[in-house]
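ugh ok fine here u go
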Amino acid sequence: MKKTITALNCFMLMFFVFGGQADAQQKREPNTLFPIKQSGVWGYMDRNGKTAIKPQFGGAQFFPGDLAVAFEFYSQNIYIPFYIDKSGRTVWYPKIDHMIPSQIEALLEIQYVLDASGEGLAIAYELGAWGYRLGYIDKAGKYVIQPQFRKAGRFSEGLASVCTQAAQNACGYINKAGKFVVNPRFEQAGTFSEGLAAVSTDGKFGYIDKEGKLPVNPKFEDAGSFSEGLAAVKLNGKWGYIDKAGRMMIDAHLDRAGAFSEGLAKVAVQDPASKPSLLGGMYAQLTFRGKWGYVDTNGKMLIEPKFEDAGSFSEGLAAVKLNGKWGYIDKAGKMIIQPQFDTAGAFSDGLAQVWTGKKMAYIERGGKFFWGPSE
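structure:
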């Protein structure tokens, strides 16, 4: 079936290139550089608000380490992603001579997978008439693992999930030398966290260790990464949390469940009047209608579900959506920064990126504008 560029594709592209809700923000180290937008182009400021990289890019993401993803405008909401270092120098740029339809579609997908947070290695791509292949570069922009994979995840705890070009059961794990440590045999393979990674086989999810053993057998309909000793899993259409032995620690009774952060996890209950989406993945997340709150690691609902959307806690605050606008609450559920933004990111190094219309800004923990707003 021929692929087409849909309105949802374009929305998701803009979401990732220009920032989004709280949990869409990339991981980033403290005291790093912050993307800024001035007169329609992007650059970076330092923590003092001083311009560190002159605005010049079509889009820019946070620095999770030595490199960051920047974008060059191509045409009609199509952007070419590449890597820059903290001086603003282009470290790696794809070889593109003449763009063809299959490559344009490939670029839309690539926006979601490029990642520079993988323990010194970044995911890079090669375009061709067949679409794209993924490999890994070092901080100098040199390939250390040649492009060959259909899917590739960031390195975590020394391993990365990759999927070969095979049609079925093609996902496994490689080390930083590009050698398979866990041979491809899974339908899907997640990122390692706290010694375990979610994998699927025959449509069911379980967890694998670094030796390729399955301490938690595949029996769940979906599964997240471990965080603070617990992982969200879906069973019989509902979400709960298990420990590393696979024991259900918080019963599966929730309609959505996020990862724990600072002792709390965002969870949601479906609006009884709404119907679940027949489509899965990101579309189902975007169209979900319910109320969000927060549970502790014992499963107690510390902040009752009343928000239209919610982010994870970071530096003691979490972004929440109420009456169509985003603000921030503390761990007691008190609204610290009143809802007023169209999108809101997580706090890092005392700042959070927020948007009102097309104007972007950074705010401090008290809600005071630190930089911007600027379009």
